Amino acid sequence: MAFVLAIVSGVLLLSGQFSGAARWQAIIDTLSRFIEVTPSIQALFLAIIAIASLGGIAVIIAGLLIARGQSRLPRLLILLGTGFGILSLLMYIVPQAIGGRFPLIGESSAVTIGVVLSIVARSLAKG
User: Fold this and answer.
1) Which of 75, 82, 99, 112, CA to CA, is 20 to 30 A from 64?
2) CA-to-CA distance for 38 and 1, rounded, in angstroms?
3) Domain positions in the chain
4) Exposure pattern of 42-65 as b/e (b: 16+ CB <10 Å)?
5) What is the pTM of this model?
């Protein structure tokens, strides 16, 4: 079930041209305000952003890996590809809902559904 959700999620993310790269870039930008970002930290985040820029493709690959019985790498790929975990999704949706706005990620209901499905797939892929 997790692999099907991951693949459907990846297709939805691709249809909305969404990736988690911007969220990871925002994290490194925020981090650099508080600590010195060394070249090794920059290299780490460059690798993370490179994977995250694949977005839906990373999530589809995760689904295929889940189908092959893997769990740790697919869970990481889903997290990187979407830029969202359960907590960060709630931190995104709740303030928008309180403000009276319908919370859409990437201004697309397909992307929002894709992110939610990917988080469910990640949860179902036991690690």
Assistant:
1) 112
2) 41
3) 2-124
4) eeebeebbebbbbbbbbbbbbbeb
5) 0.85
Strands in 1-127 per DSSP E:
none
Whole-number CA gyration radius for the chain: 15
Q: Which residues contact 31 (CB under 8 A, 6 or more apart)?
A: 37, 41
* Structure token digits, residue 16: 């909305």
How buried is residue 76: exposed, middle or buried, by Cβ count under 10 Å (0-12/13-18/19+)?
middle
Query: Are the CB atoms for 122 and 75 separated by under 8 Å?
Result: yes
d(CA 60, CA 78): 9
Could you give the percent of the chain with pLDDT greater than 70?
Answer: 99
What's the rounded Cα separation, in Å, for the pair 20 and 111?
11
pLDDT surpassing 80 at residue 105: no
Tell me what percent of the residues of the chain surpass a pLDDT of 90.
47
Count, residues in the chain: 127
Query: Which of 60 and 95 is assigned the larger pLDDT?
Result: 60
Give 105's strand partners: 108
